[in-house]
Amino acid sequence: MTQAEAVEREARSIREAEENISIDDVAPEHREEVRELVVEGMDELFRPLDPDLSVEEVYVCGSFAEGEASPTFSDLDIRVIINSDIDQDQSEAMADELKKYITQRAPEEAPFAFVDPQVFPPDVDGIPPVEEVL
Questions:
Q1: Predicted confidence (pLDDT) per residue in 26-61, tens digit
Q2: Burial 81-115 (b: 16+ CB within 10 A, else e)
Q3: Residue 77, Cβ neighbours under 10 Å: how many?
Q4: Where are the beta strands (DSSP E) in 8-75?
Q5: Quick one: 131 exposed, middle or buried, by C-beta within 10 A (0-12, 13-18, 19+)?
Q6: Which residue, 21, 34, 88, 107, has most beta carbons within 10 Å?
Q7: How many CB atoms lie within 10 A of CB 133?
Q8: Better-scored residue on pLDDT, 107 or 37
Q9: Please, what are the domains in the chain?
Q10: Residue 62 β-bridge partners
């Protein structure tokens, strides 16, 4: 067995031993802190470029929304809906910068490895359904 296979095997055994959690298992103060970091990050990073930019909603999706998150390995997937029309390239660039911003400031004791945002304009087609508002 290679070292990579041994690491993967150990990680799999840890995941299997843990009980899955959902967003309901995340402390309200951690949920609020993530939401505040989203708004602060969007304001600090992008409002100078668009003074009217604002965050409309922040939704949880992925394993935390589905109740299948691992407190050791899962990231917190979120969808950020903003009030500005942006294209896919802008959306991806905003998400990348917002991820860096939040990762540097997210609560260390929260039960997720990091926050992974997606940024969408309002009324965009093709956004998969979400489970929970953050």
A1: 889 988 999 999 999 999 999 888 899 899 989 998
A2: bbebebeeeebeebbebbbebbeeebeeebbbbeb
A3: 20
A4: 55-61
A5: middle
A6: 34
A7: 11
A8: 37
A9: 20-133 (3.30.70.1350)
A10: none
